[in-house]
Amino acid sequence: MQIDQSIFKAYDFRGIYPTQLNEEIMERIGRAFVEFLDAKEVLVGWDMRLSSEALKNAFTIGATKQGAKVIQLGMVTTDALYFASGKYNLPGVMITASHNPKDYNGVKFCRAMAAPVSQDTGLLDIKEKVLRNEFVDAPVAGSVEERVNTLEAFSEHCFKFVDKDKIKPLKIAIDTGNGMAGKLLPIVLKSLPCKIEPLYFELDGNFPNHQPSPIEKANNLDLIAKIKELKFDLGLAFDGDGDRVFFFDENGEMLDSSFITAMIAQKLLEKNPGGKVIYTVVVSHAVPDLVRSLGGEALLSRVGHSYIKDLMKTSDAIFAGEHSGHYYFRDNFRADSGVIAALIVMEMLSESEKKMSELIREFQTYYKIEETNSKVENAAEIINKIKEKFRANITQEFDGVTFDFGDWWFNVRSSNTEPLLRLNLEAKDKKVMAKKTVEILRMIRAQVQSLKVKVKSPEFESKIFNRAS
Description:
- The longest helix has 15 residues, at 23-37.
- The radius of gyration is 22 Å and the shape is globular.
- It has 14 helices and 21 strands.
- The protein has helices at residues 23-37, 52-65, 78-88, 123-132, 150-158, 181-189, 221-230, 257-271, 286-293, 305-315, 338-352, 356-361, 379-389, 430-444, and strands at residues 12-16, 41-46, 69-75, 92-95, 104-110, 144-146, 171-175, 195-199, 234-238, 245-248, 276-280, 297-301, 319-321, 327-329, 335-336, 367-368, 372-375, 394-396, 401-404, 408-414, 420-427.
- By secondary structure, the protein is of the alpha/beta class.
């Protein structure tokens, strides 16, 4: 059969079911994964998507044909799969397409101890095995075991990161978007005194209420309205497979993940003095500034979970945060977890006796725009022109190009999948941020007349920019 090779991504395999990804391909993936790792046992978890059950079965058939024992964990979150991989010291896969629309599905991979598998560390080999399809059945087929209570064990593990008794009766609205966090959170939250307003906890692969992608504002409107209506203390929004979380204050304002990273870093450095914290090029400089001020060491990583996990391993860093809502914890097998991040923020909010908007303000030492997209046809040419103008201020040339001017900085990078340039910029002064954002966007959009730059004067807010999508 002809396989659409666009399903082979940098960190996972993902495509539209059944035209791009189907049972036959997934059976090959099962065989390839086992053959590549020479695995004797493999963990399998899956989400609530309509095709996940069938794809899980196909993966199981392929893996057992190669002689591996398949341990099925049931419907779990991705961070629970990583936890199980660490707990049992076994490789695993998660059948999910994360935040993508309902017609998509995919598979995420990890080695034993939740170690990442990316293009550089095995995905290209697995891809080639899938395409060649030259598998030989094992002399003895593998068996299948069902292992229940993974979510309960993971819930207990999550509470190792906080003092449960310090969490007060907060009022929290939580939107899981009919995704897998809706199965995990009731187990986690039942032992807490918090008042919870659950939105869309019912597992439903049709995603009848909104897409499971909280990074997009349109998908958070119901949550924001509920926070305001009930005058709640905090809002949480999880993506489809439950490994990412986004935070909202008592006013329904979505909080920048950079400043949440700074918050969590402070808490973990209290417990691990002198520890190392990882950040990426598009994370606010508030993070490395804070880490250094507390006596820790700030380490810069490329964007992407495999790079971050590898750096965590070699440096023994205690924590890492990305602007995309991923939070990684050394003591969680260096894997990311939205639930652990949420519990730590809940504990800090309880201890502070402040409103969430007041607490986060302590970490907002820079004025930062939202990541702003511009549709362009000549991304490389535009980046080169910007480099020519600001060559003396280039500090990094991975994950785009980063320029630092002391009191302000910006990063510009191309999208891997769309004709877009992405701009991140922040400054110590709000007016400097406004002025420099206009300047850089005019350079980017000089030949794009349909995209106007609008700025409120004299104050500036990032949301007034037209954002190409």
